From TrEMBL:
Protein name (Swiss-Prot/TrEMBL): Glu/Leu/Phe/Val dehydrogenase
SUPFAM superfamilies: Aminoacid dehydrogenase-like, N-terminal domain, NAD(P)-binding Rossmann-fold domains
TM spans (from-to): none
Keyword Oxidoreductase tagged: yes
Family in the record: Belongs to the Glu/Leu/Phe/Val dehydrogenases family.
Binding site for NAD(+): 182-187
Pfam short name (any one): ELFV_dehydrog
Keywords carried by this UniProt record: NAD, Nucleotide-binding, Oxidoreductase
């Protein structure tokens, strides 16, 4: 394991960036700790076939920063971190690799707590936990909360209800057309909430199997070939639920939806997209605000998991979203800016308490 010489951390405002390699198991990973101002950094482990190490580094830096803001806005006493394992999980994921990764996480002494993300599952966390004490998101059989996508989707739905109320005057998606891009772990649960609420749902996914499963469960759901076709459809709400960068200049130019609210992390392709959305009359629900349900779920596991307690906390995403929209209106800024201000305020105020001497 190698700590970065500081250049990456300094350039991005991170506390620590660690490169982890274990040649015998094939492990190549990066752990990024953005902030421990509110507590230990919690964030999932993404297992993905990045084209280059530089791509992996850029992703982990952006994701870990988002986790700091997500935990702060969710009212958790946790900081933000993230890890990426470079490689195709279908090809290189092994017990040895996961356990090697667990030893690297353990070596950080609790500054970073790991959980599931794209390409990793609760069963993987059980393997990592054989070498590491700082793991959450484990299987129910091992005392964990299980699949965190359940409450991630529930939280996104609550944020979407708040956006619907701000846009159309009622906290429901009944009668609205919602386009969901990505119906894997989180997207499929979100589709269920939307159908139950009376929405008309259109989906797309790079996986034909994922789309087929949705159509089997919900025959009334329509499917389109790709995301380009989805964003050009007549939509009331667009829900990006796959990988980041979903809101590009090209997407914003053709988007007909009045609301954007989805589970994907880092949806804004570059700085300034939030202003473009606002100028076009599109209400954007900041991703890290509405997709915090999964974080809330795995954080609750650290106390001894209670699904009802975690769900009640995730339901408050509705209130947080409403508060952010109100602040955005009063301050005359996009919701993404308002959400950042609230998160940064909490990080400042609570971290300041560390200066109060305790005997």
């Amino acid at each position: 394991m190698t700590d970065s010489p500081g250049v990456f951390a300094q350039a991005s405002g991170h506390e620590q960036v660690v490169f982890c390699r274990d040649e015998p198991s094939g492990l190549s990973a990066i752990i990024a700790i953005h902030s421990t101002a509110l507590g230990p950094a919690l964030g999932g482990t993404r297992f993905y076939p990045y084209a280059t190490e530089q791509d992996a580094l850029a992703d982990v830096l952006a994701l870990s920063r988002g986790m700091s803001y997500k935990a702060a806005l969710a009212g958790l006493d946790l900081g933000g971190g993230k890890a990426v394992i470079i490689g195709d999980p279908a090809q290189v994921k092994t017990e040895a690799l996961l356990r090697a990764y667990g030893r690297f996480v353990q070596s950080l002494g609790g500054r970073y707590l790991t959980a599931c993300d794209v390409g990793t599952y609760s069963e993987d966390m059980d393997q990592i936990a054989r070498e590491c004490s700082f793991v959450t998101g484990r299987t129910v059989a091992h005392g964990g909360a299980g699949d965190s996508s359940v409450l991630t989707a529930y939280g996104v739905f609550q944020g979407m209800r708040a956006a619907a109320e701000a846009t159309w005057g009622a906290p429901t998606l009944h009668g609205r057309t919602v386009g969901v891009a990505g119906v894997g772990k989180v997207g499929r649960h979100l589709v269920g909430h939307l159908v139950e609420d009376g929405a008309s749902v259109v989906v797309t996914d790079v996986s034909e199997e994922a789309v087929a499963r949705i159509r089997t469960t919900y025959p009334e759901v329509r499917a389109v070939p790709d995301t380009a076709a989805l964003v050009r459809s007549e939509l009331d709400v667009y829900a990006p639920c796959a990988l980041g960068g979903a809101l590009s200049d090209e997407v914003v130019d053709v988007l007909s939806a009045r609301v954007v609210c989805g589970a994907a992390n880092n949806q804004l392709a570059h700085e300034g997209i939030e202003k473009q959305l606002e100028d076009r009359g599109v209400l954007y629900a900041p991703d890290y605000m509405v997709n915090a349900g999964g974080l809330i779920q795995v954080a609750d596991e650290l106390e001894g998991f209670s699904f009802d307690r975690a769900k009640a906390r995730a339901e408050k995403i509705y209130d947080t979203t409403t508060k952010v929209f109100a602040l955005a209106t009063s301050d005359g800024v996009p919701p993404a800016v308002a959400a950042d201000r609230l998160a940064e305020q909490r990080m400042r105020e609570i971290s300041r308490l560390r200066g109060i001497h305790l005997r």
